[in-house]
Here is the input.
Amino acid sequence: MLRPMRPVSHADEDDLVARAQAGDQGAFEELVRRHADRLYAVVTRFVGDRQEAEEVTQEAFLRAWRGIGRFQGNSQFFTWLYRIGINEAKRRVGRRASPAGSTSLDEHPGLEVSDLSQAPETSADRRELRGVLEGAIRALGPDYRAALILRDIEGLSTSEAAETLDLGEAAFKSRLHRARLSVRKAVDDYLGDER
Amino acid sequence: MIKRLARHYHFMREHLWTNSHLSPYLDQEVSAAERIRVEEHTHVCPKCHRMLETLRETLEGLRAMGAEGGAPSGLTDSVMERVRGER
Here is the structure.
């Protein structure tokens, strides 16, 4: 069961952050406990491998501990933390060879769509659709993947997700829309093959 | 002839505009006027109507992927061990 993404109390969280900034490891441990599940989920979606995700999540928390003195409270703590996690995940992914089949979004996905009467209904179809979605997410470039994971899977608001990625809202929305169209195209191809 | 061209121009303008506003529409991040504009076009344009519905299906699938599992049980301990090892 996942812990809630957001802290129960902002004041409580602010206090924990302030104590951690003063060197209180116990306060930092509580922050880790609160955010570990969600950060791990984001990173796992991003890197696509649980073992690697665990390493990245640990590294992200360590970087957060080292840098917590620089957190000024201008953003929410979890968006600051997610940014560290995503940047670390991007570094890991960047070290690998360019993923085969990575999708360029330079070309706008077409408008051709399938017959919606073929939308998956059974649980087997749903599992298959899920596999299609996972493949489509993995095929996205890192910047597009991050936008989609934060907004559509993790459920951050547009402003929170934009803040995490250090983007203005307009730029974030544009990136998200293109990512969604690319994934939708994969779904559409899947539905088309089912006909 | 001119009327037909004008209708076609209007349709294509609405087609392109609608296509770029489907995401914010589904996120309920459009104004009331923009919402009506999307709905009017998707009502008369089969391609945009289907595009909207497959995009909606995609977002539902993505959202269903959230809230799964949790971090490995020892992750917090491992992090804190490394934190305590820091000078």
In short: DSSP finds eight helices and no strands in chain A. Chain A touches chain B through 49 residues (CB under 8 Å).
